[in-house]
Specification:
Protein name: Crp/Fnr family transcriptional regulator
Domain HTH crp-type: 148-223
Largest sheet: 4 strands, antiparallel
CATH superfamily of the largest domain: Jelly Rolls
Structural class: alpha+beta
Pfam family, one: cNMP_binding
Keywords: DNA-binding, Transcription, Transcription regulation
Oligomer: single chain
CATH architecture of the largest domain: Sandwich
CATH topology of the largest domain: Jelly Rolls
Distance between the termini: 26 Å
Strand content: 25-35%
CATH class of the largest domain: Mainly Beta
Number of domains: 2
Radius of gyration: 19 Å
Number of strands: 14
InterPro entries: cNMP-bd_dom (IPR000595), cNMP-bd_dom_sf (IPR018490), Env_Response_Regulators (IPR050397), HTH_CRP (IPR012318), RmlC-like_jellyroll (IPR014710), WH-like_DNA-bd_sf (IPR036388), WH_DNA-bd_sf (IPR036390)
């Protein structure tokens, strides 16, 4: 079962929340376009909007006291970010940056979103549930970065990917993960370098734990 956080009970929140779907908002609403490395917002910017990804990929991160970048999430088409604005937080505590040359974003003001949520209580509940799950997942990732070695971080990240993008192969019993991330994305998300990631992947291949392809990871069934 795909448990991608953007879908709850088969409700596509992007289609429900995007103001282009509503005649009273569509005439005055525009998508915003970004190139690779363009920032959508910075730390300490005013948190007055939430954003839906229409196309492309967005990196969410922070800089630590030493100026080192910490990647908290890489989001793709259909996902929401900047969601803490809904909770009454005035300033951003992270940055959002396009990592695709053709990123298209649907920005929604807090006021517009509150109006849409008031019209549909069940969707409002799902949005707050989404925010709770997102915060819990980001906290778990920070704990991984602080206290686990790179191999453990990768294995736990693969468990997370399995929840979002995985399914069982009936013929072999393997878990197959079809995902949108590059190796560079994965290295950033688990806080390591691409060379280190490649070393770990090769070790796991040799141990017959997984097979790793460009957009597919196969978690091999353990043979007794």
């Amino acid at each position: 079962m795909n448990t991608n956080m953007w879908f709850f009970d088969d409700v596509n929140l992007f289609k429900i929340l995007c103001p282009h779907k509503y005649s009273e908002y569509s005439s005055n609403h525009k998508f915003s376009s970004y190139k690779k490395s363009d920032y959508i917002y910075f730390e300490q910017d005013s948190a007055n909007k939430i954003y839906l990804i229409n196309k492309g990929k967005v990196k969410i991160g922070q800089y630590n006291d030493d100026g080192k970048e910490i990647v908290r999430a890489i989001l793709t088409k259909g996902e929401m970010f900047g969601e803490k604005a809904i909770l009454g937080i005035d300033k951003r505590n992270e940055f959002a940056q396009s990592i695709d040359n053709t990123t298209s974003i649907c920005p929604i003001s807090k006021e517009t979103l509150y109006e849409l949520m008031r019209d549909n209580v069940s969707v409002s509940f799902k949005i707050y549930k989404f925010i709770g799950l997102r915060i819990k997942r980001l906290e778990r990732r920070i704990q991984l970065l602080l206290f686990k070695d790179a191999k453990t971080r990768l294995l736990e990240f693969l468990d997370e990917l399995c929840e979002d993008y995985g399914y069982d192969c009936e013929k072999t019993g393997d878990k197959i993960i079809k995902h949108p991330y590059t190796q560079k994305d994965i290295a950033s998300l688990i806080g390591t370098s691409r060379p280190t990631l490649n070393i770990i992947i090769n070790e796991l291949k040799q141990a017959k734990i997984l097979d790793f392809y460009k957009k597919e990871i196969r978690i091999l069934k353990k043979v007794a």
